[in-house]
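Weekly structure sync, notes
Attendees: PL (lead), two postdocs, one rotation student
Agenda item 3: pending single-chain targets
PL asked that the sequence for the first pending target be pasted directly into the notes so everyone works from the same version. It is reproduced below exactly as submitted, 106 residues in total.
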Amino acid sequence: MRLPALLILFCCSGCSHMAQDSWTGRDKAQHFASSAFLSAAGAAYGERQNWRESRSGSFGLMFAIGLGAGKEFYDSREAGSGWSWKDFSWDIAGAAAGYTLWQSAR
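Predicted structure, written out during the meeting:
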C-alpha cells in the first residue's frame, strides 16, 4: 500500500526544472559506478548484520536507489542542474549491477 502512494508522491513532486542532458557522458558512468558500489556495499552491510539474503539484497538496492533519488531531488532545486530521468535510470541500472556482483561474489 505504501509503494503506490510513494510513487504517486514521487511523480507529482513538482520538480523546479528538468535537466536537458544526453543518455551518454562522463556523469552517466559516474552515476552507474557509484550506484553499483553503494548497492553492493549496502548488501554486504546487511550480510554483516546477519540479515537474510533477500533482506540484505533489498537493503543494498534501496540504499543505492534512494541516494540516487535524493541526488536528483537536490539537483531539481532552483539553483541546481535540474532533475534528470536519464541520470536516475543510470542509477537504477548501476544498483542492479551492484546487486548482481554482490550475488555472484557470495
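Discussion points:
- The longest helix spans residues 26-48.
- The helical segments are 2-11, 26-48, 53-75, 85-105.
Action: rotation student to compare against the earlier draft before next sync.
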